[in-house]
Amino acid sequence: MNPVVVRNVKIGEGIPKICVPIVGVTREEILRSGKNISTVGADVAEWRADWYEDVFTFEKVEETAKELRDVLGSIPILFTFRTAKEGGEKAIEKEDYVRINQSTAKTGYIDMVDAEVFTGDDAVTAIVKTAHELGVKAVVSNHDFHKTPEKEEIVSRLRMMIELGADIAKIAVMPQNKKDVLTLLAATEEMYTKYADRPIITMSMAGTGVISRLCGEVFGSALTFGAAGKASAPGQMEVEDLKTVLSLLHKSL
Description:
By secondary structure, this protein is α/β, with parallel strands linked by helices. It has helices at about 25-40, 60-70, 95-105, 120-135, 150-165, 180-195, 215-220, 240-250; strands at about 5, 10, 15-20, 45-50, 75-80, 110-115, 135-145, 170-175, 200-205, 225, 235-240. The strands form two sheets. The chain has a nine-stranded parallel beta sheet.
């Protein structure tokens, strides 16, 4: 496993890193969330730009990215436009999705971009290519808010992300029962042990799946998402509680 280093944060080594989403609607809310994140001990901040009211006006996106960069200091920023079909706040055409990710990567204010794998191979490849040319890391992702696919399908999707050039492959699924959580964890272990030469991020959502957000170091997930205020997905714990549990587990391994 080769860790991904972003602003001196090593993702894929040691205790799983904690990423806190920013889900502000206005520039003021976004910057206020950024200031809060800088004080809670998060390793990474994810700007969920699909929540931003001016996300389709690129000049405002660039301006907000610059101010957020100043607020967060050395904390890496993951830029994410989560599409409506994968649980996000807004629908977007494929061409616009590619353009906003590429354009934001070019600003120099962000460190990683998130590309949804089912946007299409051509779109993902274009985003990853631009990101890598600029020294920006690419997270290629998939989110299923309805079910948990079979273990083989989860592994297949993660492997596809790596084939498309992901620096980090990420999948989040919704459990219908406790067995689904075990399916996600088994897929994580198999992917980590057999196929992954780079970090993977996996999680089972909602309260049923919360254990998957805590045991990444055991099964192979390199990063987990915590809340510092408003959560961006069901099942996210507060950062302070998350850090306590991750540290306790780490000491026992």
